[in-house]
Specification:
Length: 421
């Protein structure tokens, strides 16, 4: 059992004596730190955990998400998984929907002004956000809040007063603002309001800990400073890594088409997870799996000693599919994947009715939505990536007569086409 040095409160006066860090607190701290990029300030958070254990009062853990799109992907769940771990430790998690801040637009990582969303877009997206987040969080123990609750009543007078609490010099310490200013790229005044309003959320909620991706660090620190200015105990901040997408390079994003949506069919999720590299697999294990670190280390050791990494990847894919669907869906997805790998046809093939027979194969692949263009279709034929009823086709000039057949492009694109004259 260890102890921490005395801290100071938000006003700078000596705080109460440091509490001892019990085995339970140290275990909770270890769980909190698993897979994180940074925990600031760790000693402060350890004391918050110790006080929570001593008083029986749970910590208030905040995560804010702007409903900029209606669907969540596995990249979003990295921070949601951490929220669930903290929830399982008995703390109060707050799922904050940024319906007000969405109208400003988060400038994080942007080199241009982000277009703000309309109220209608925000409400439409927010409808599905918590439903999807509840696939990870325990909805019955989650506090749902909207930051318009306290942001709308501020009004012009309150916004001016809030703005007086932070300097332009501090705001320009933000990396993306600095780069845009130096390059002559416009920065709208309203963009300065975003980190201020996100910080004010922490004041309104009296947050003990705020979570976010590494790209949110500046915004999280603003909340910490504003709490101090308002005489509150400062929140600690926890940043999680940004999960790379299926390409293993760029962060997971729908716009980059390297994502796995959490509401995608189980078979699709499974196949996408099996497509990641053997190296990237361990990154996914660390950030997405609920297995213990000891279990993951044992798997890694087994692979190093000769176990087929495919078997470890199957275990990961089944765990993820089971989490968002069911155990049966995970079993079915594995069977479907094995069937596809042997050249078989999956059960859930989209069915289309097209006309115009006879029609050239490249044109038909485009019409079926399996290729974006006829030139891409011809390229896939050249690469041996096109099958009809399981048979590889090498003739780009092939014309198909009326009938029903299964078209396949690559490993995962299928369509059962009924072609008429």
């Amino acid at each position: 059992m260890t102890t921490s040095s005395p801290s100071k409160n938000a006003a700078g006066a000596p705080a109460s004596p440091a509490l001892p860090l019990t085995d339970n607190v140290l275990e909770a701290l270890a769980i909190t730190k698993r897979g994180v990029d940074e925990l600031l300030i760790e000693a402060e958070f350890a004391q918050k955990l110790a006080r929570s254990e001593h008083s029986g009062k749970p910590l208030r853990i905040k995560l804010g998400l702007d409903p900029t799109a209606p669907d969540l992907h596995l990249g979003h769940t990295v921070v949601l998984n951490k929220m669930r771990q903290l929830q399982n430790l008995g703390h109060q998690v707050i799922f904050l929907i940024g319906d007000f801040t969405s109208m400003i637009g988060d400038p994080s990582g942007r080199n241009i002004t982000r277009p703000p969303l309309t109220r209608e877009q925000i409400e439409l997206n927010a409808m599905t956000y918590f439903k999807q987040a509840s696939l990870v969080l325990d909805a019955s123990r989650t506090e749902i809040r909207y930051n318009s609750e306290w942001s709308d009543p501020l009004g012009a007078r309150g916004m001016i007063e809030l703005s007086s609490r932070y300097t332009v010099a501090r705001m320009m310490e933000r990396d993306d603002f600095t780069k845009r200013f130096k390059s002559g790229t416009p920065i709208s005044v309203h963009e300065f309001l975003y980190p201020l309003m996100q910080g004010y959320d922490s004041v309104a909620l009296k947050a003990d800990l705020e979570l976010g991706g590494t790209d949110q660090k500046f915004n999280l620190l603003v909340g910490r400073e504003l709490q101090k200015d308002y005489g509150q105990e400062q929140q600690c901040i926890l940043t999680m890594p940004l999960l790379e997408g299926l390409d293993g390079i760029e962060k997971m994003s729908k716009s980059k088409n390297n994502y796995i949506g959490i509401t995608e069919p189980g078979n699709t999720m499974f196949a996408k997870l099996m497509s990641i590299s053997d190296v990237m697999m361990w990154r996914y294990f660390e950030l997405l799996s609920f297995r213990s670190l000891a279990d993951i280390a044992a798997l890694k050791k087994a692979v190093a000693e000769g176990m087929n990494p495919r078997d470890a990847k199957v275990a990961l894919a089944q765990e993820i599919v089971e989490r968002f669907h069911s155990a049966q869906a995970a079993t079915d997805a594995l069977a479907d994947f094995v069937n596809r790998s042997k050249g078989g046809i999956p059960d859930d093939v989209a069915e289309l009715a097209l006309s115009g027979a006879p029609v050239g194969l490249p044109q038909l692949l485009k019409q079926a939505g399996l290729c974006a263009s006829t030139s891409e279709a011809m390229r896939m034929v050249d690469q041996g990536g096109v099958r009809i009823d399981g048979v590889v086709i090498a003739d780009k000039a092939l014309k198909l007569d009326a009938g029903t057949f299964v078209l396949q492009v690559g490993k995962r694109k299928f369509a059962r086409v009924t072609l008429s004259a």
